[in-house]
Amino acid sequence: MSALAAPSPPATPSFAAALAEMAVPLLLLDAAGTITFANACAAALLACPAPAGLPLPALLAACGAAEPEGGILPEALRAAWPVRSRLTLGDRLVEAALAPLSSGGFALTFEDVTELLRGAALARQEPLTGLCNRVGLHDRLDAALAEAAHSDAPLAVLMLDLDRFKAVNDTLGHPVGDALLRKVAERLRKATRSGDVVARLGGDEFAIIQGGPSSGAEQPQAAEALARRLVDLVGRTYVVDGHMLNVGVSVGVALSPADGRNADDLLKHADLALYRAKAEGRGTYRFFEPAMNAQMQARRSLEIDLRRALALKQFDLAFQPQIQLETGQVVGFEALLRWNHPERGPVSPALFIPLAEEIGLIVGIGEWALRTACREAAGWTQPASIAVNLSPVQFRGGRLVETVMHVLAQTGLDPARLELEITEGALLENTDSVLDVLNGLRALGVKISMDDFGTGYSSLSYLQKFPFDKIKIDQSFVRGMEGNAECGAIVRAIARLGASLGMRTTAEGVETATQLDAIRAEGCTEVQGYLTGRPMPAAQAAALLIPSPAALPADAA
């Protein structure tokens, strides 16, 4: 709203009436700051029916106005016409514009900007928790950095990501998840100082701007103390709608100016540190290091190559024999995913499979592996089984049963020859949903195996919930049997458990004759490892079945 700049008010009744009926609140002041005229809008806004004759300071004091920003009294502002100031009138925010009149004195107009400012604030506020949103965080960070540039005050940016939140959301529903997020937000507020900024960026992602003293003596110690406090506080048990919930938090920290002098760089570097914290086990914090940039670039390059590999069909399968201990015969193969990059060479599955899971490519890769393995097995001369690993990601979306059904129909493989291997990780995310999928797969006639058995906390409980066809004993126990009585006891217990439940047991990672003898003595039914057969190309696996089932090495029998 532009300030008025008009001659002193004429005395004509018609013009005075027009001023009185103006929709804009208006006061006219003499050179000393005494009110000579007030229209009806101004009287209503200031809750003063007859302000004329009052000095402006007295009027403002009478209506409870807080001290204006910059002041609006004529004697204080003669050198800065026109002048705009903001007043607080009760619960209203008002902008006042003061302009000189050519005949002396001043015109003072008001505009109620309460809703406008509240709307601007809401546009920078996240509605679920009341914290800053991403836009608000960026604005506050820009302002904090501008202030820090003048005062040399350090500041830290912390990026946070909740651990295990998705499992809560999926199993108990979004209302419980939302209530949990509000409780987390409250704990973040309590963990920070009044001058810090806490924001929710979306989902279970949060961020904090932590200021610091001008001396800089508290950084990075202050940021580290806050990160430790957050890991401890957020990780404590929550009670939401009668549910006892446990989530953790991973934290990444970047410091200004060492890690960046602008908002974009600081947020990016804090995010890289967060990625490192999550990769190193979650429930911890990491500070940004310059090497993380190079590592992220390498990761992005690998991601691009991984997407290209799927499009160009650069993947292959290797087949590792599974031997029945009682007869020494090959009873099946496990299909193992391989990627031989044209420039990188062989890429370790331990490197590219977690990345494929993270970016969602594992669904397409897994479907390709399943179809290829089933097609190869359908052409074998012996009815050996084919085992294919399933990623936890493949259980999401509700299409896995349909996919397996279509692959079996397309390849003509007998469903009884297909074994699908899952790890405990698949069951951790949403047990009931995964069990529904497993029952659907079982209805197709396929076999279900639990891989890496014994490494998780709930393996035994899952055996009660679903009748697995096979238990695969993790290779860490097999390798530890030589010289470690505890590993031998674990293998023995799993073998006996499998026998009592009618489940086959396969010992993985057998590499020595001593291990093989121990496995046989403990009662396992099958063995798989380098001693009895390394992963081999499809043609070699097919050829192994042509003459007769392979026998165990003579020196190991």
TrEMBL record:
GO molecular function terms attached to this record: catalytic activity
SMART domains for the chain: EAL (SM00052), GGDEF (SM00267)
InterPro entries: Biofilm_reg_signaling (IPR052155), EAL_dom (IPR001633), EAL_sf (IPR035919), GGDEF_dom (IPR000160), Nucleotide_cyclase (IPR029787), Rev_trsase/Diguanyl_cyclase (IPR043128)
Superkingdom to which the source organism belongs: Bacteria
Domain named EAL: residues: 299-549
Alphabetical list of Pfam families matching this protein: EAL, GGDEF
Gene3D superfamilies recorded: 3.30.70.270, EAL domain
Domain (GGDEF) ranges: 153-290
UniProt cross-references to PANTHER family, sorted A to Z: BIOFILM ARCHITECTURE MAINTENANCE PROTEIN MBAA (PTHR44757:SF2), DIGUANYLATE CYCLASE DGCP (PTHR44757)
Protein name: Diguanylate cyclase (GGDEF)-like protein
Organism of this sequence: Methylorubrum thiocyanatum
